[in-house]
Amino acid sequence: MIYKDASKSIHERVEDLIGRMTLREKVAQLYCANSYGGESIYDTRTEKLKDGIGTISYLNDSFTGDLKKDRETIEDIQKFLVEETRLGIPGLIHSEGIAGAQIPSATTFPQSLNLASTWEPELAQKMGTVVKKQLLAFGFKAVHSPLFDLSRDPRFGRVGETYGEDPYLVAQMGVSFVKGIQGDHEIMATAKHFVGYGNAEGGRGGGEQQISERSLLDSYCFPFEAAIHEANIKAVMNSYGMLNEQAVSTSKWLLTDILRNKLGFQGLVVADYGSITHAFLRYRVAEDAKEAGILALKSGMDVEQPGNQCYQHLVEAVESGELEEAHIDLSLRRILETKFTLGLFENPYGEGDFFNEIKKVENAELSLEIAEKSMVLVKNEDNILPLKKKLKIALIGPNTDTKTNFFGGYSSVGSANTKSSDFDKSEEDTFLRMIYTGTITDNKESLKLMGIEFDEQPTPEQKEIIMNMLRENLNSDDSSKRVYKTNEEFVQLFYPDCKSVKEVMEAEFGKDDVLHAKGCNMFKAIDGGIEAVKDAVEQADVVIAVLGGKESMIDPEATCGENKDNINIGLEKPQMEMMEEVFKLNKPVISIIIDGRPLATPFISEHSKAVLYSWLPAQSGAEAILNILTGKTNPSGKLPVTIVKEAGQIPMYNSRLPLYIDINEWASYIKTDHNAPLYPFGHGLSYTQFEYSDLVHDRTVYANGELNIEFKLRNVGQITGDEVIQVYIRDRVSSVARPVKQLVGFARVTLDGNKTKTFTFKVNMRQLAFHDLNMDQVVEPGTMELFIGASSQDIRLKGSFEITGEKVNVERKVFSSQVTITEL
Fold first, then answer.
1. Average of pLDDT values for 139-155?
2. N or C, which end of the chain is more exposed by having fewer CB within 10 Å?
3. Which residues, 6 or more positions from 560, have their beta carbon under 8 angstroms from its beta carbon?
4. Residue 658 has what pLDDT?
């Protein structure tokens, strides 16, 4: 058979295989089977997998914690598909990977916002390579990572999963991660969520998005386009929600006209979990599951996930004449091409020794390096940091003695106790829709005994009570098959070397000199907590407050995460009440913010001597924090997001359009000083200082040419430090409004004390291309301003140049500048 002959071309193999398939076998390749909650799809294989399957969801929640057993289960599922189905087509088994392979004991890495804060794409590629090896060794050939969403609203619960607010930075970090994790056609990475997901109105994930086509193409699509053409991304996942009144999962305009025809994507489009069902369950653009399935497939959605609630009707739709089989074949070709490209037919099982991979010391060292380089010191008044020796320290705050809060919701730790409905909210939608009607009709007497009595329909208040009861039943946890019960037990079992801030501080300074008082929990006060904190502070030389939140889908103490959007973008009330009392005692305070979102901390920042944003630093988070505080590591992270002062300022981001006579003004709200952000994009301090000088650059450049920039950077301090050089360009006058500053290049460099290096940037003018009034993508002639500095606001060098010649139409942008660093 040709399709089993590896010497034949992929095209020949695909066409041969399609010619042998029945309609049911074809449709089965277009949907997914899941293995949630410890119940393996293998247990029902003869029924659910008899026609084969396209993809298999085996996320962390399906693991029992018995790694050997779970790895064998994955292999057994694949073995059944290969050996016991008629055609032997292997399944594409997927997991997650933005914070490391989502497998217990796999190396955990700081989450994406941390990675972006390093401004070092090479680290993203190194991390991706490690994640790839560990996924492959466990049996995965696909991963639903990374996110290419632009994150500009701190109310959005998933900010920590993104690479921040800026299209250029997101593209550089995401492309590098994809190159690492895909390797040489070894794993299918998935760019998500296409498109605009992080821009939902009110920060409501999965809600309505209004984005003009120009902004959509020039900003929100830019990172995806870069991934397509610079990293050959193999898959794209749609976003939840509605964009410009179209349900994304059934939008031909987005999934075909823009993604494929405009951006040039040729790979596989996979559905975010339950998103096709949202077309009829939530957004009401389809009558039922069958219509939603037909609309999604015709729009360009190749694979339904995590089940087949809609695509199971495609066989009937073809047989009834509602759908042409050619639509099935088009998507079928894409998934079969992907499977052949990944070598699944030749090697469908795991590759490598998983247990050997997770023992490699260099992987843990890389996780620590990313954590250290990602922490952003935004304030250091009177150079209070690094800490002096022989201090008595009051260590306070809800994140002092926790380990789990270092981990993101899509890490192995963060998802340890998640269930099917946590990832796939359509399951909850469907359950509630079906069971509610039955409950109020068949169980009226039972409800009456509970004090819920009504004639025909419950009152709105009664309905809310009933719905909450049903949700509680749906979310009840059966952990009997697991070797762990809680996330804390999970960390202790699989990451025994992970330490809390309290543990590392006591080891460094001695227990007698570290006065610990937690003070409060995340959302709740502790009886006597503030008094205990005040007692510790009064005895101390310095206060270290470890504050912030927790990212999780499920934890009741979560302040952010998927389905955990939060209207409060600051610290929760108990923490603020505690800190108000602490500041009254007039001791120097160092505040550390552990959180997946860029929390607004104006009160904390004003009264603290130093403020450090650590984000979600993973398994070595406490050690990284200690190293920054003590000066063993010089802080070097830079903000990948703008930090606002309060929710009323949202949105504020660096590449905003000009509005006021002074182009650098942000806002002019009355009766407030909140007209600028708390901390700007790109900001971050070091324990040393850097001097920029000797800028030389081209004064003219053709519209299809390249701008050459050269300047020097000197470390004028005595200690070694890292600086992140940032290059911005502003179009002085253009046919449509353009950003006040557009990031076009950056470079991270290490400099010893009193050393100098020369930087040469080459910026192709096609990086500046945008869609003009006619929606043509062009580079326009005109005067451009050049800004080089340590942040978007801390500009050290300025220049200007002229783009000459005629306007140039651009088919495809250039996605990155080139930099050369020379040591003097």
1. 96
2. C
3. 157, 158, 159, 160, 549, 550, 551, 566, 595, 596, 597
4. 95
The fraction of the chain above a pLDDT of 90, given in percent, is 83
Other CB atoms within a 10 A radius of the CB of residue 63 amount to: 28
As a whole number, the mean pLDDT across the chain is 93
Pair 411, 618: CB distance under 8 Å: yes
Q: Residues 204-227: pLDDT tens digits?
A: 998 999 999 999 999 999 999 999
Question: What mean pLDDT do residues 795-813 have?
Answer: 97
Cα 571 from Cα 557, distance rounded (Å): 13
The CATH number, out of the four listed (3.90.850.10, 2.60.40.10, 3.40.50.300, 2.30.38.10), of the domain defined by the range 690-823: 2.60.40.10
Q: Name the H helices within 159-221.
A: 167-182, 213-215
18 vs 173: CA distance, rounded Å: 38
**Enclosing H/E stretch for 94:** strand 92-95
> DSSP assignment of 314-364, as one string?
HHHHHHTTSS-HHHHHHHHHHHHHHHHHTTTTT--S--S-HHHHTT-HHHH
Closest residue by Cα to residue 684 from 794, 809, 534, 569: 794
Judge if the upstream peptide bond of residue 110 is cis by omega within 30 degrees of 0.
Answer: no
67-99 residue pLDDT tens: 888 888 899 999 999 999 999 999 999 999 999
DSSP class of residue 773 equals T
Whether 645 and 560 have beta carbons less than 8 Å apart is answered as no
Q: Which residues pair with 763 in a beta bridge?
A: 707
The pLDDT, as a whole number, for residue 37 is 46
At which residue do the structure tokens 């920590």 appear?
A: 160
CB 209 within 8 A of CB 199: yes
- Contact of 786 with 799, CB cutoff 8 Å: yes
Going by pLDDT thresholds of 50, 70 and 90, the confidence category of residue 383 is very high
Residues 643, 677: contact at Cβ < 8 Å? yes
Query: CATH code for 369-414+486-649?
Result: 3.40.50.1700
Contacts of 167 (CB under 8 A, 6+ apart): 150, 219, 220, 222, 223, 655
Strand pairing of 268-270 and 376-380?
A: unpaired
Q: Which residue in the block uniquely carries the two structure tokens 């800028």?
A: 695
Give residue 481's pLDDT.
59
Task: Please give the Cα distance from 56 to 35 (Å, whole number).
Answer: 8
Instruction: For residue 761, give the amino acid letter.
Output: F
How many angstroms separate the CA atoms of 363 and 359, rounded? 8
pLDDT score for 480: 53
Q: Give me the sheet containing 92-95, strands edge to edge.
A: 32-34, 55-57, 92-95, 142-143
Q: Is 472 exposed, middle or buried (0-12, 13-18, 19+ CB in 10 A)?
A: exposed
Q: Catalogue the E-assigned strands of 637-794.
A: 690-697, 700-702, 706-715, 721-731, 742-751, 756-764, 770-771, 777-779, 782-789
Q: Looking at residue 438, what is its pLDDT?
A: 59
Q: What is the C-alpha radius of gyration for the chain, rounded to an integer number of angstroms?
A: 27
DSSP conformation class of 520: B
Query: DSSP alpha helices (H): ranges in 510-620?
Result: 529-539, 573-583, 602-607
Report how far residue 21's alpha carbon sits from residue 85's, in angstroms, rounded to the nearest whole number.
12
Q: Is 377 exposed, middle or buried (0-12, 13-18, 19+ CB in 10 A)?
A: buried
- The burial class, CB within 10 Å (0-12 / 13-18 / 19+), for 433 is exposed
Give CA–CA dist 374/111, Å, rounded: 10
Please answer whether residues 155 and 559 qualify as being in contact, where contact means their C-beta atoms are separated by less than 8 angstroms.
no
Domain ranges of the chain: 369-414+486-649, 420-474, 690-823
DSSP E strands in 520-654: the ranges are: 542-548, 589-594, 610-615
- The angle subtended at Cα 299 by Cα 293 and Cα 304, nearest 5°, is 40
- Decide if pLDDT at 56 tops 70: yes
